[in-house]
Specification:
The chain has helices at about 5-10, 50-55, 55-60, 65-80, 85-100, 115, 150-160, 195-205, 220-230, 255-265; strands at about 20-25, 105, 120-125, 125-135, 150, 175-180, 210, 235-240, 250. The chain is α/β, with parallel strands linked by helices. The chain has 2 domains: about 1-35 and about 80-125 and about 195-270, 3-Layer(aba) Sandwich (Rossmann fold); about 45-80 and about 130-180, 2-Layer Sandwich (SIR2/SIRT2 'Small Domain'). It has a 6-stranded parallel beta sheet with strand order 3-2-1-7-8-9, with helices on both faces. It is elongated, with a radius of gyration of 19 Å.
Length: about 270
């Protein structure tokens, strides 16, 4: 049996007018050279103490070191290119919407690879590495809804002389800028840009749910699984890792960058 057969069977069972929800995790970007958080790959970020560094509390305590740490991570993230799995999901979106079906891709990743691959119906529940926002809540460039493109010139000045006086600041109010990412001590609904309500609504309405490259270790995956369980929607997980999938989830232990393009070709969704 071809390795992509379970994915093909899963998608072929989807009605042309039924909603499909795809949820991706860090595993989909490993083939692009970006390490996972909780994965078993050698560069997994979770092996380091990010639960302290990736918090609002740490930013308030030491904004200089917070910015330095994130910039050291995000340079590689922003330099990466989409791999065949990202392109396959963009093709799957076009294929299913062309049949009249609703589609939503919810990613846990802050990298911009889905957008670069052409995905349009996209929710980034953990924010995006290519954006920043004002640390002052209520500012037009901050929560609850504002953000700005990554301030390249301000970042270059800061890296040349990293201290509090050179930290990137908001053009609207002069407050410090922060990363536009969900920190460990924040909530999904802390910023409208995370699209939490849209993701939850899609989970409740989905006819089928496809997980790609996730370890099922964050809150959004638990919420989606609960919604799928209550509606009886079939769930398939594509991931080559050793993480056992939750109960009721069919698992395909194979590289997404291989099986997703093959399934799309078989569907005619090139």
């Amino acid at each position: 049996m071809d390795a992509h057969a379970p994915v093909l069977a899963f998608l072929e069972g989807l009605g042309p007018d039924r909603p499909l929800l795809v949820v991706t995790g860090a595993g989909i970007s490993v083939a692009s050279g970006i390490p996972t958080f909780r994965g078993t790959d050698e560069g997994a970020v979770w092996k380091h103490d990010v639960t302290r560094l990736g918090t609002w509390a740490f930013f308030e305590e030491d904004p200089v070191e917070s910015w330095r740490w994130y910039l050291s991570r995000f340079d590689g993230v922003l330099a990466a290119a989409p791999n065949p799995a990202h392109h396959a999901l963009a093709a799957l979106e076009r294929w299913h919407e062309g049949r009249g079906g609703a589609f939503l891709l919810v990613t846990q990743n802050v990298d911009p690879l889905h957008e670069r691959a052409g995905s349009r119906s996209l929710v980034k529940v953990h924010g995006s590495a290519d954006r920043a926002r004002c640390a002052r809540v209520g500012c037009a460039n901050g929560a609850p809804a504002g953000s700005v493109p990554r301030p390249g010139e301000a970042i270059a000045r800061f890296l040349a002389d990293p201290r509090r006086g050179t930290l990137p600041r908001c053009a609207a109010c002069g407050s410090l800028l922060r990363q536009h990412v969900l920190w460990f001590d924040e909530r999904y609904d802390s910023h409208e840009g995370y699209g939490f309500e849209r993701a939850l609504g899609a989970a409740l309405e989905a006819d089928r749910v496809l997980f790609v490259g996730t370890s099922f270790s964050v809150g959004i995956t638990d919420l989606v699984l609960r919604a799928a369980g209550s509606s009886g929607a079939p769930v398939l997980s594509v991931d080559p890792g050793a993480h056992p999938p939750p109960h009721g989830v069919e698992a395909l232990r194979a590289p997404a960058e291989e099986v997703l393009p093959a399934a799309c070709r078989a569907l005619g969704a090139a």
